[in-house]
Write a structure and sequence with these properties.
Helices cover about 45% and strands about 25% of the residues.
Amino acid sequence: MTSHATTLVLGGARSGKSPFAERLIHDSGLTRVYLATATAGDDEMTTRIAQHRKQRGDGWITIEEPLALVDALTREATHGRAVLVDCLTLWLSNLMFAERDPEIEARRLVRFLGVAKYPIVFVSNEVGLGLVPETPLGRAFRDAQGRLNQIVAAAVPQVVFIAAGLPLWLKTNSEE
């Protein structure tokens, strides 16, 4: 495992994914870019975003991009930089609410990863371990999230699952 390899960090809600991903980026020694996909649609999300910024501390370049992830990565994942994308789950939610096709966007992301030269750490929720959602939209989201996680996991050299703040490395093919 190396902090310089592109990595997918998976886990449940409040499992410790983001702090773990932030440490990977911090340990890279490169300029740290935080690519945030969240939107502050209500007071709770505004508070969560503020808490994330405070926990992260100084020394990060923060880019907010809820939809055009590949475009933002193309601009930001450059020489001397390591990018943290937090998170793919909110990106997917944004895509679905904007009525954009998640599979097309996931394929664009994988094409980008095929040519990316600099480290990127993706955070994503594992939503398939809980109850079956009651609504059709909830089930469609859960299924799309599972497919997105599989597609990204296949495209990156490292995948780690976080539970209770502890890493379980699922894939460590860091030869890039």
